[in-house]
C-alpha cells in the first residue's frame, strides 16, 4: 500500500531538514523525486543521498521561493522535460522569529508570498498533469501553530493559518479530480531551523540552549524532539495509495504536544 514505484514527486525545500526527509521517504517507497531548493551544490549532495533501489534517477531544480515567477518558470520548464508528476510536497524555509506586534508589514507579505503564493503557483503548474493522470497527492508542510499560535513566532503563526485554509480549500476543489490535499503540522523537529530558533530563544530568556531544549521536551508527551525522518514517513504515507481516503486534514505530527495543551 505504500508502493510508489510508478510515481513522480516534486519535493520543495528539500536540500536538508524536513523537506529532505520527505524526499528520502518518498524515494524509499520507489518514487522518482525532483528536489527543489536554491543551492546547486547542496541539491546535488542531497540527490546523491536519495534511495534509488527501484532504479529511479532523481533530479533537482534550483529555484528560490523569494522569486515566485522564477520558481514557477523553473518548475514548469522542468515538467515539460519530465512529464506530469503525481506528488507535490510544498515546503520552504520558515519566517524569522519574533513577536508579531514588532513585525514589519513587509515581513508578513514576504512570508505570505513564500508560502501561500509560491504554493499556489506550484499547484497551478502540477494540477493539469495530475488531472490527466486522474491521481494526485499534494502535501503541505506547515506547523502546529495552525492549532495554537507558538509564542515568539508571530509572522509564522499568521502565515501558517493562511496556508492551512488554502490547502483545505483545495482539498474540496480537487477531490473530484482524484487529487487529495493534506497538511502536515510538524512539532519540534531536530533540524537546522529548530537549532537557530532554540539559540535565539536561549539568548532572549538568558538560558542555555540545553535548558531551552529541556523546557520544550517537558511539553511533549513522548518526551523528545521529532527526527525529520518521522515527518518524512507521514508524508510518504499521505503520498501513497494507503491514504486514498484521507483528504483535507491538518495532521499534527508532534508527539502529542498539541493534544496535551
Ligand atoms: P530547514 O531550514 O532545516 O530547511 C529548509 C529547507 O528549505 C532547506 O532545504 C532550504 O534550503 C530550503 N529553503 C529555505 N529557503 C528557501 C527559499 N527561499 N527558496 C527555496 N528553498 C528554500 O527547515 P526545517 O526545519 O526542515 O523546516 C521546514 C519547514 O517546516 C519550515 O517552514 C519550518 O518553519 C517548518 N517547521 C519546522 C519545524 C521544526 O521544528 N523544524 C516545526 C514546524 C514547522
List the keywords:
261 residues; alpha/beta; Rossmann fold; globular; binds nicotinamide-adenine-dinucleotide
Count of helical segments? 8
- Low-pLDDT residue spans: none
Q: Class, according to the CATH hierarchy?
A: Alpha Beta
Q: What is the assembly state of the chains in this entry?
A: single chain
Cross-sheet strand order for the largest sheet:
3-2-1-4-5-6-7
C-alpha geometry: globular
Radius of gyration from CA coordinates = 18 Å
Integer average pLDDT: 97
The CATH architecture classification is: 3-Layer(aba) Sandwich
Coarse structural class: alpha/beta
How many beta strands in the DSSP annotation? 7
Largest sheet: 7 strands, parallel
Structure description:
- With 261 residues, the protein is an alpha/beta fold.
- It is built from eight helices and seven strands.
- The chain has a seven-stranded parallel sheet with strand order 3-2-1-4-5-6-7, with helices on both faces.
- The structure holds nicotinamide-adenine-dinucleotide.
- The site of nicotinamide-adenine-dinucleotide has 25 residues, from helix 1 and helix 6.
Amino acid at each position: 500500500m505504500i508502493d510508489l514505484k510508478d510515481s513522480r514527486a516534486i519535493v520543495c525545500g528539500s536540500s536538508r531538514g524536513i523537506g529532505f526527509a520527505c524526499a528520502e521517504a518518498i524515494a524509499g517507497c520507489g518514487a522518482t523525486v525532483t528536489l527543489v531548493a536554491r543551492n546547486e551544490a547542496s541539491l546535488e549532495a542531497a540527490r546523491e543521498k536519495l534511495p534509488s533501489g527501484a532504479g529511479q534517477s532523481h533530479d533537482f531544480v534550483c529555484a528560490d521561493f523569494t522569486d515566485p515567477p522564477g520558481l514557477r518558470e523553473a518548475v514548469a520548464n522542468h515538467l515539460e522535460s519530465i512529464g506530469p508528476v503525481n506528488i507535490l510536497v510544498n515546503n520552504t524555509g520558515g519566517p524569522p522569529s519574533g513577536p508579531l506586534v514588532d513585525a514589519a508589514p513587509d515581513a508578513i507579505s514576504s512570508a505570505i508570498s513564500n508560502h501561500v503564493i509560491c504554493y499556489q503557483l506550484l499547484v497551478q503548474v502540477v494540477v493539469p498533469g495530475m488531472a490527466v493522470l486522474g491521481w494526485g497527492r499534494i502535501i503541505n508542510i506547515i506547523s502546529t501553530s495552525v492549532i495554537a499560535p507558538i509564542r515568539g513566532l508571530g509572522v509564522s503563526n499568521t502565515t501558517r493559518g493562511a496556508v492551512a485554509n488554502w490547502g483545505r480549500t483545495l482539498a474540496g476543489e480537487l477531490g473530484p479530480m482524484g487529487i487529495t490535499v493534506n497538511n502536515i503540522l510538524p512539532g519540534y523537529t531536530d533540524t537546522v531551523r529548530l537549532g537557530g530558533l532554540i539559540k535565539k530563544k536561549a539568548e532572549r530568556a538568558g538560558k542555555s540552549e540545553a535548558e531551552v531544549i529541556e523546557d520544550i521536551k517537558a511539553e511533549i508527551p513522548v518526551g523528545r524532539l521529532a527526527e525529520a525522518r518521522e515527518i518524512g514517513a507521514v508524508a510518504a504515507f499521505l503520498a501513497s495509495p494507503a491514504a486514498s481516503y484521507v483528504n483535507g486534514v491538518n495532521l499534527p505530527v508532534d508527539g502529542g504536544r498539541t493534544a496535551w495543551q
